[in-house]
């Protein structure tokens, strides 16, 4: 039985090979051949077998941030520059980031907390140096705008004071003119009052004289006027008499 089995095994193998050859030949004969592409198209490799391009550190960091897979440990800002220390709990890894505005400038990855702290302090020092120029520019720009604002405020105040001074000067001139007019009027009224008082005194004196005369019971007759003597008529051819 064993010898029969050994002798029959090669025959079966040859038979199987011949059958496969015949099947392949009949398949090639039945398939239509084209002049442009005589060979059948090669099957495209499966998507799983394609080589994947590794993501950059920045893109990987953005993806982790979008997926909320990072925890912010520290962040320092100096003007528009900043540094952050981020922790990824899944891998116990750290990301140290230097950014400007909303753009990541440098991203470094490490599994050591001490190295991450050292990198973070280095980035923070760089943000201080880089941000100092912007901070100085911001302060100087604000100082210039404040000075311009104060100039405008003080100019407005100066114009108001000048207007007040002009108004006060005009009022002072008007008051001075009114004072001069009042003084002249007072002088005139004083003269009028003096004359009026004199007239009043004269009238009062006449009243007192009349009252005294009327209160005297004695009859007082007026003194007769002295008689006048007529001058003699001169004779002709005689010189006129000398006046006494």
Automatic annotation (TrEMBL):
Superkingdom classification of source: Bacteria
Region (Disordered): 217-244
Stretches assigned to coiled coil: 151-213
Pfam families for this protein: DUF2968 (PF11180)
Keywords on record: Coiled coil, Signal
Residues spanning the signal sequence: 1-29
Biased composition (Pro residues): 233-244
InterPro entries xrefs: DUF2968 (IPR021350)
Keyword Transmembrane helix found: no
Entry protein name: DUF2968 domain-containing protein
Organism (species): Dyella kyungheensis
């Amino acid at each position: 039985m064993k010898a029969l089995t050994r002798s029959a095994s090669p025959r079966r193998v040859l038979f199987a090979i011949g059958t496969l050859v015949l099947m392949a030949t009949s398949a090639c004969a039945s398939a239509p051949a084209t002049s442009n592409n005589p060979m059948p198209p090669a099957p495209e490799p499966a998507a799983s077998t394609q080589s994947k391009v590794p993501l950059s550190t920045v893109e990987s960091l953005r993806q982790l941030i979008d997926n909320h897979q990072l925890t912010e440990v520290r962040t320092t800002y100096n003007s528009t520059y900043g540094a952050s220390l981020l922790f990824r709990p899944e891998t116990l890894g750290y990301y140290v980031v230097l950014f400007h505005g909303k753009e990541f400038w440098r991203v470094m990855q490490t599994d050591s907390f001490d190295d991450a702290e050292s990198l973070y302090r280095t980035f923070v020092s760089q943000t201080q140096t880089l941000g100092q120029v912007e901070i100085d520019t911001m302060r100087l720009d604000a100082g210039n705008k404040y000075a311009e604002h104060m100039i405008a405020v003080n100019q407005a105040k100066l114009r108001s004071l000048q207007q007040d001074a002009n108004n006060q000067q005009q009022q002072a001139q008007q008051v001075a003119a009114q004072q001069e007019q009042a003084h002249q009027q007072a002088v005139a009224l004083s003269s009028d009052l003096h004359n009026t008082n004199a007239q009043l005194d004269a009238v009062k004196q006449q009243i007192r004289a009349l009252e005294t005369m009327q209160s005297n019971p004695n009859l007082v007759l007026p003194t007769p006027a002295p008689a006048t003597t007529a001058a003699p008529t001169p004779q002709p051819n005689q010189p006129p008499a000398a006046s006494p």
